[in-house]
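#struct-help
A.M.: can someone run this one for me? Single chain, 153 residues.
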Amino acid sequence: MSAAADSLERAADERALEQSFERVHTERMAGLPMLNEQLRVEALGFRDWQGVRVGALVTPWSINLIILRGPDLALPTARPGESRTWAFPSGEYDFVAAEDPTLGSYAQCSLFSPAFEFESHDDAVAAARAALDELLTAPQPARMSRRGLLLGG
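D.P.: on it. Structure tokens below:
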């Protein structure tokens, strides 16, 4: 697959994710008290990582990290609602398996639910981007002073 075709497929996955959750918003969540009306559905920051696609999803009711299938790799088999631990550079996190008729299998890790902390959509997007960046960044080892090195502390 060419780089251009791969990029289009990735963008299509993100649009499909947004469309699926927009349907949930209008068909199942409309009018519920857990909605932050300042937020809208937006998939963001998706990137390839170890054969899968990792990104974030902002909705009026939650902010989640999302794992989608990769171009050549399906997600491990799991029943919807089943939790699986995924190891990332920053540590291990539990993701819950989900299924969508359009998307197929995906996994999600809740960051905020409900998402009332956010006064604007831009604030929610910034938090989602920061969480995604942290997820994929290994912690830096603490710098030890010469004294600490010599005294073991």
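A.M.: thanks! DSSP finds three helices and six strands in the chain.
D.P.: also worth noting: The beta strands are 42-49, 52-58, 63-68, 83-88, 91-100, 104-112.
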